[in-house]
Design brief:
about 280 residues, alpha+beta, 2 domains, three-stranded antiparallel β-sheet, 10 helices, elongated, binds zinc ion
Length: about 280
C-alpha cells in the first residue's frame, strides 16, 4: 500500500471496493447527530461539521475511531442488514467465519518466535513431522480442564478469568443469547473492555491451567493459552466439530488487493470464532 504522504486523508484500505457499509452508514448517522447538536448553538458551524464529517467518511471510510469493532453489532438488529452489508454471495459457500476476533485473557503482545521456542523447550508443544502440535501430556491436562470448565456458568468463568489475568475486573454479559466474559484493563477503565465469547474463555482458562507444570511465569502461560487456541480439535463449550473458514473483507477482517484473507477456526454451532491464523 503506497500513500503519497502521511497527511493524505484518503484511506484506500477502507474505501472504494474495500468500503465497509456498516461503518459508513453508522458514521454518516453519527455525523448527522453531531451536526444537529452543533446547530442548536451555531447553524453555520453545523453546516461545516456536516460537510467535513461527510468528506472524511467518503475519503477515509469512517471518522469515529474503533468503528470496525462496533458498527457490525450496531447494525445487526436491522432486518436484512447482514445480507445487505455482507453480501449474500459471501455466505453461499457456507464458509464465512463468524464475525470478529474474540478478545483474549492476555492482550499483551509477545514475540511469536520466542514463545514458540519456549513452549517447545518446556514440553507444551512438540515437532510432529513438519508441523508443531501440543504434547500428549499437555493435551491431556488441557482436555480435562476444558471438561471441568464447560460445566461452570459464565459468572464463575468471569471470576476465574479475573483471578488469572491482569484485568482489574470481570463480569459475565449475556447479549442476544450469546454469553461473554468482559474484562476491564488493569487501569480499570470500562471503555476498553476486552470481550471473550464463552468458548474462547473456556479454551484460554483451560490452556492456562494446563500449562502450570510446564511454565512458571504467568504471562507466558497466558500467552501460551491464547496461541494454543489454534490447536483446538473440538469446541471447548459444546464439544462440536470445528470448521476452517476465511475472514471476509469487512470491518476489521479487511484484505487489501492481492492479499489472501486470513484463515479462521470456528464453531459453527456456537457461531464463535476461536482462532484467526496470521496471514503468511
Ligand atoms: Zn460450540
Amino acid at each position: 500500500m503506497t500513500r503519497s504522504t502521511t497527511l493524505d486523508p484518503r484511506r484506500p484500505e477502507h474505501t472504494g471496493e474495500n468500503r465497509c457499509w456498516p461503518c459508513t452508514v453508522v458514521n454518516v448517522a453519527l455525523v448527522a447527530v453531531a451536526a444537529a447538536a452543533v446547530s442548536v448553538v451555531s447553524p453555520s458551524t453545523a453546516g461545516a461539521v456536516a460537510v467535513v464529517g461527510l468528506a472524511l467518511v467518503w475519503l477515509r471510510g469512517y471518522v469515529v475511531p474503533g468503528t470496525p469493532r462496533f458498527a457490525p453489532r450496531l447494525v445487526a438488529p436491522i432486518p436484512g442488514s447482514d445480507a445487505l452489508f455482507h453480501g449474500t454471495a459471501a455466505t453461499d459457500g457456507g464458509d464465512r467465519a463468524p464475525d470478529g476476533e474474540s478478545g483474549s485473557l492476555d492482550p499483551a503482545d509477545v514475540d511469536g518466535e520466542e514463545l514458540l521456542d519456549r513452549l517447545l523447550a518446556e514440553g507444551v508443544l512438540e515437532i510432529d513431522g513438519d508441523a508443531v502440535a501440543p504434547t500428549a501430556a499437555y493435551r491431556e491436562r488441557w482436555r480435562a480442564e476444558t471438561d471441568r470448565l464447560r460445566a461452570e456458568d459464565t459468572e464463575s468463568l468471569a471470576a476465574i478469568a479475573r483471578d488469572i489475568s491482569p484485568a482489574a475486573a470481570a463480569r459475565a454479559v449475556s447479549e442476544d443469547g450469546d454469553e461473554w466474559v468482559a474484562l476491564s484493563p488493569p487501569d480499570g477503565n470500562t471503555i476498553d473492555e476486552t470481550w471473550l465469547r464463552r468458548p474462547v474463555a473456556i479454551a484460554e482458562i483451560a490452556g492456562y491451567r494446563a500449562a502450570e507444570p510446564f511454565l512458571s511465569d504467568d504471562s507466558i502461560r497466558l500467552a501460551a493459552a491464547r496461541t494454543n487456541r489454534m490447536f483446538l480439535e473440538a469446541c471447548p463449550d459444546c464439544g462440536g466439530d470445528l470448521e476452517r473458514g476465511v475472514d471476509m473483507p469487512c470491518c476489521g477482517g479487511h484484505t487489501g488487493p492481492g492479499e489472501e484473507p486470513a484463515e479462521t477456526l470456528a464453531c459453527p454451532a456456537c457461531e464463535v470464532r476461536l482462532y484467526t491464523f496470521p496471514r503468511e
